Amino acid sequence: MAVKRQISELDGIYFITTTCHQWLPLIDATGYDIVYHWFDHLKTEGHFVIGYVLLPNHLHALLAFTRCRTSINTIIGNGKRFMAYEIIKRLKELNEIRLLEKLAADVSKRERKRGKQHEVFEPSFDWKECNTDKFIIQKLDYMHDNPCRGVWDLVDNPELYVHSSARFYATGEQGIYWVTHFGELEDIDLTKTRSPRVETPSDSERR
């Protein structure tokens, strides 16, 4: 369940979960590359994507934040707004009128007064700080197993799911989105902003 807790630190490794409004498959409907573009932005700000899995209606990501100029909650909030804007833009291009009307109708009066036009993501996000390798591995295993269990059952093996870092951690081969192994961060001081190497697939490879 998403929670409204403030992350007090300005650096560190966090397991983040963000869910689409009412679990609607908005990511699948508009393109997984929207999330990858947000990951790209995080990298340009000096942060690291350690692992991820993107599902039709939510995403899990293990992110390492370097010394931030603003709160991590704000960084995540800005990312959600960026993705929401692009999702709505693409829904309009796809002429998804009924879905757009629903997302607009679900905006509260309070949020509408503040200028919000569509409800794309759940208001809050879930997060857990990862201070040990054991906990990091636990979260990686949890997220990588997601496509193989529950209502999804999308693949028989986590390594076969495209929008995931499972193959990298199982074989050492990068998938369609380049991630940094958490072991590499042992020699990096997360309290100092650095610019990691960015190797990302083209948009056509991501879709």
Describe the protein's architecture and organization.
- By secondary structure, the chain is of the alpha+beta class.
- It has one domain (12-206): Alpha-Beta Plaits (2-Layer Sandwich), CATH 3.30.70.
- It is 37% helix and 14% strand.
- It contains eight helices and four strands, in the order E-H-H-E-E-H-H-H-E-H-H-H.
- It has helices at 26-30, 33-44, 72-93, 97-105, 109-113, 133-145, 166-171, 203-206; strands spanning 12-19, 48-55, 58-65, 126-129.
- A four-stranded antiparallel beta sheet has the order 2-3-1-4, with helices on both faces.
- It is globular and about 50 Å long.
- The two termini are 28 Å apart.
Quick structural gist:
The chain has 207 residues and is an alpha+beta fold. The chain is 37% helix and 14% strand.
Kindly report the CATH topology: Alpha-Beta Plaits
Cα-based radius of gyration, to the nearest Å: 17 Å
Number of domains: 1
Strand content: 5-15%
Main sheet characteristics: 4 strands, antiparallel
Low-confidence stretches: 193-207
Topology:
Layout: E1 12-19, H1 26-30, H2 33-44, E2 48-55, E3 58-65, H3 72-93, H4 97-105, H5 109-113, E4 126-129, H6 133-145, H7 166-171, H8 203-206
Antiparallel strand pairs: 1-3, 1-4, 2-3
Give short descriptive properties of this protein.
single chain; 207 residues; alpha+beta; Alpha-Beta Plaits; four-stranded antiparallel beta sheet; 8 helices; 4 strands; 37% helix; globular; disordered C terminus
